[in-house]
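User: I've been trying to design a sequence by hand for this structure and keep getting stuck. Would you show me what you'd pick, starting by listing the structure so we're on the same page?

Assistant: Good idea, let's start from the same input. This is the structure you sent:
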């Protein structure tokens, strides 16, 4: 069994998307049920917990979403009191401008929303950690955060209550949504970057 720390939890239409970091092998994982679905609303997994998990990698994954694994058995270990420090001792977060995230493959819409597409090339994976270099400010009336002084802004999809400001130097988790197009026959598919939480 692998030692996995739960690092994110976002609400989906039919359950939760639960992200983790496999401390045993040093890789990101997305914890699906044994039959390959998102975790149910009754899932035991909570952010900041450490678990022993036996899982199998999901077959036929579509890059950059290579983290999908199917949980076969789980045993709770403990809660981690300082998740930011714990993560940074094991993972080297990105420390530059938002434009350099995801292997510098991001494009940006006219409204400043970051995304990846096939023509710009794909990053190594679909999740990562970022030490913010500028304050992130909540956009009034929206579940989005704007990089202070710049036009870049990111949709927030996490479960923790939104705050007005995420200070410089905060460890945040970013992820790429699944491939999507409003009209596949007219527009390219993209994976839009999301803010899934902070520590």
């Amino acid at each position: 069994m692998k030692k996995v720390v739960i690092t994110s939890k976002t609400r989906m239409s039919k359950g939760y998307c639960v992200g983790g970091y496999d401390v045993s092998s040093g890789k990101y994982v997305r914890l699906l049920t044994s039959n390959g679905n998102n975790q149910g609303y009754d899932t035991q997994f909570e952010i900041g917990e450490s678990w022993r998990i036996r899982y199998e990698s999901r077959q036929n994954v579509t890059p950059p979403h290579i983290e999908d694994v199917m949980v076969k058995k789980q045993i709770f270990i403990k809660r981690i009191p300082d998740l930011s420090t714990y993560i940074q001792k094991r993972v080297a977060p990105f420390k530059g401008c938002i434009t350099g995230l995801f292997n510098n493959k991001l494009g940006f819409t006219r409204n400043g929303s970051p995304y990846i597409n096939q023509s710009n090339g794909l990053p190594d994976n679909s999740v990562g950690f970022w030490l913010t270099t500028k304050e992130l400010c909540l956009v009034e009336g929206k579940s989005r955060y704007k990089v202070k002084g710049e036009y870049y802004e990111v949709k927030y999809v996490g479960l923790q209550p939104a705050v007005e400001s995420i200070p410089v130097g905060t460890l945040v988790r970013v992820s790429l949504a699944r491939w999507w197009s409003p009209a596949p026959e007219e527009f390219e598919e993209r994976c839009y970057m999301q803010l899934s939480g902070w520590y």
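That's my pick for every position. To get oriented when you compare it with your attempt: The two ends are 26 Å apart (CA to CA). Residues 83-88 form the longest helix (6 residues).
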